[in-house]
Amino acid sequence: MRQPCVLLKYGELALKGRNKERFERQLVHNLRHALSDAGFPVRIRRRRGALILSAAEYSDEPRQQARTQREFLVRARELIGISVVQPALRVDRTPEAASSAAVDLARTLRPDGTAATFAVRARRRNKDFPLTSTQLADRVGARIQAELGWPVDLSEPQVEVAVEVDRAEILVCVERHRGQGGLPVGSSGRALVLMSGGFDSPVAAYRAMRRGLACDFVHFTGAPLTGPASAYKAYALTRRLARFQGEAGVLWLVPLGQAQRALATAGAGGLQVVAQRRLMVRTADRLARRGGAQALVTGDSLGQVSSQTLANLATVEEAATLPVLRPLLAWDKEEILTEAARLGTAEISRLPDEDCCALLVPPSVATRSTPGQLARLESRLDVNELVGELVEKARPLRPDPSGG
Ligand code: ATP
Ligand code: MG
Question: What angle do CA 351, 352, 356 make, to 5 degrees?
């Protein structure tokens, strides 16, 4: 047996017993989702503290095998909940099989035939093996020295060969990549993200996912006062984020234009932006409850713009019945932009759109507001009915992560 596969570690999550079991099950579920459109059946084997990902049936064609392995690697590195991703060869449970796999893998790292210093790190996840870890490492190391002429350097090797003995196989790897880390998405529950077309909210969504929240999304457009550009952006953003959570999550699109005009007509003045936010939050709150979400998530960062003073955040929050989570509350814009670039959302957020918040903006936005002021404004229109209409108008989209 010699099978290319990918070895996934999720770290010794400082979790015990049933909780750990639940996390593992969630991660396997997410992985299946993330690979459901890979185009071929996938096999996931559970080992202690690790998962082995391979194709259910292997092509005999080495190049096809390599492509499959690379595809696994790319997807596993994006899925939240995995801390280390290692392309590996899965071989028979003998020192000889491990040694020749190690030699072949090491050779691929130096195709020009030059030497590299190396070290073999062996471990036995399963102890009923005739050799100790040290003996096994010595055996494999001796073969690499003999066949490739590479010198050993145990303290700062250029190449680390990992040999892991498991209950049914040995896994040999020479590469190690960092995964996203975090808790498997879904293990902390479900949230609804208020997604603008900006830089902040996709990053906020990602950070919420990293803490195990499965995310759905709601985007408010200025329709009928604006075109569809911002909805396309929100759609593209949720599709990008789907790779991190495994399943796509629903995107609700809600046309806010008429309600915005109603607020302006009711004399919102300097409170227009905060009043709009409260409408968004009320609508999101109802959609969230309907979809089984237990919290709202926003991209607010304290003091970033005038609608995000502490007073205004509090006034907006008062309109929600669910907790409003703000993962970026204490982040600087620069930190947010760096993370957005890493996630690949920045290039989408940068596209032009017609943001509904830019409509009907008063000459000066009030930095201070109170729930009382807003309640008085809202009593001049029937807010409940307005929110009911917005929920009625909400349209769900389910992004297809692989689609065009
Ligand atoms: P972002 O904060 O995502 O960069 P932005 O800067 O345009 O977008 P802000 O004015 O900072 O938006 O709004 C703060 C938060 O309010 C956003 O992070 C988002 O959670 C929510 N929000 C704003 N506009 C919308 C919208 N049109 N649809 C859904 N949520 C929105
Ligand atoms: Mg912002």
Answer: 120
> In angstroms, what is the span from residue 199 Cα to ligand 2's centroid?
7
Q: Where in the chain is the domain with CATH 3.30.2130.30?
A: 2-178
Helices within 165-225 (DSSP H only): 200-210
Q: Which residues surround ligand 2, an ion (CB under 5 A)?
A: 200
Return the CATH architecture of domain 190-397: 3-Layer(aba) Sandwich (3.40)
- Backbone φ and ψ for 321, nearest 5 degrees, come out as -100, -25
Q: Assign domain 2-178 one CATH number from 3.40.50.720, 3.30.160.620, 3.30.2130.30, 1.10.1740.10.
A: 3.30.2130.30
Which H or E run contains 135? helix 133-148
Residue 13: the pLDDT is 59
Distance from the alpha carbon of residue 273 to the mean position of ligand 2, in angstroms:
13
pLDDT digits (tens, 9 = 90+) for 70-88: 999 999 999 999 999 999 9
Across 163-182, average pLDDT: 96
Atom of ligand 1 nearest to the CA of 307: 10
The answer to whether 320 and 281 are in contact (CB under 8 A) is: yes
Model pTM score? 0.93
For residue 5, the cross-strand partners are: 88
Cβ neighbours for 76, distance < 8 A, ≥ 6 positions apart = 6, 8, 31, 34, 53, 82, 85, 179
Could you give the residue range(s) of every CATH 3.40.50.620 domain in the chain? 190-397
Cα–Cα distance, 192 to 355 (Å, whole number) = 20
